[in-house]
Write a structure and sequence with these properties.
Number of strands of chain B: 11
Number of helices of chain B: 0
Oligomer: heterodimer
Helix content of chain A: under 10%
Largest interface: A-B, 23 and 24 residues
Number of helices of chain A: 0
Number of strands of chain A: 11
Radius of gyration of chain A: 13 Å
Helix content of chain B: under 10%
Structural class of chain A: mainly beta
Largest sheet of chain A: 7 strands, mixed
Shape of chain B: globular
Order of helices and strands of chain A: EEEEEEEEEEE
Order of helices and strands of chain B: EEEEEEEEEEE
């Protein structure tokens, strides 16, 4: 069990650019989640996959955000035309559909939009 | 949806005991999680409660009262490394079962 990994760990970009983040979940976990977290706040849900199917998206997720999990393994989160308000920590978590369905988080990608 | 309330910040002394409270309102409770998050790092799972009572795990214990919409995390024999944010997350029945997180309680342990 190598845990959830995310890449890159840090990303600095200019406003208007597109960015893509990758998440590799724990190998036997079929559920994958993306969250966004800003300073002093708890993680805010963005979207969720079960296997390759995207089952839920937050109403807060603008159309500039898109996520994929093409083969039910790793996932990517893309932000198009980034804005300064997108600056945050983007966290990925995975879980298996066991009794508790506990989420295990990756180290996050810190995005700074200049 | 849930309304989750935690104190913003707490301070405590090394070696002491601290209790971090979490209250919530939900239409259908389906579990409560506590996570620890050090600055700049990812949340780390601490405990899960779905039935009333106390769950003990070493220095950390978590308590749940579903009728009161209340939980607490109890940290004993505090160490400096326990300085972190503690997040309470509540899951509701139905839908995707995705937990909603509170804002977290920043715990500062001083010598």
């Amino acid at each position: 069990d190598t845990g959830v990994s995310q890449d890159p760990r840090h990303k600095i970009t200019k406003r208007g650019q597109n960015v893509t983040f990758r998440c590799d979940p724990i190998s036997e976990h079929n559920r994958l989640y993306w969250y966004r977290q800003t300073l002093g706040q708890g993680p805010e849900f963005l979207t969720y996959f079960q296997n390759e199917a995207q089952l839920e998206k937050s109403r807060l997720l603008s159309d500039r955000f898109s996520a994929e999990r093409p083969k039910g393994s790793f996932s990517t989160l893309e932000i198009q035309r980034t804005e300064q308000g997108d600056s945050a920590m983007y966290l990925c978590a995975s879980s298996s559909r066991d009794l508790t369905d506990t989420q295990y988080f990756g180290p996050g990608t810190r995005l700074t939009v200049l | 949806g849930q309304n989750i309330d935690q104190p913003t910040e707490m301070t405590a002394t090394e070696g002491a005991i601290v209790q971090i409270n979490c209250t919530y309102q939900t239409s259908g409770f389906n579990g409560l999680f506590w996570y620890q998050q050090h600055a700049g790092e990812a949340p780390t799972f601490l405990s899960y409660n779905v039935l009333d009572g106390l769950e003990e795990k070493g220095r950390f214990s978590s308590f749940l009262s579903r009728s009161k919409g209340y939980s607490y995390l109890l940290l004993k024999e505090l160490q400096m490394k326990d300085s972190a944010s503690y997040l309470c997350a509540v899951r509701e029945v139905g839908g995707s079962y995705i937990p909603t997180f509170g804002r977290g309680t920043s715990l500062i342990v001083h010598p």
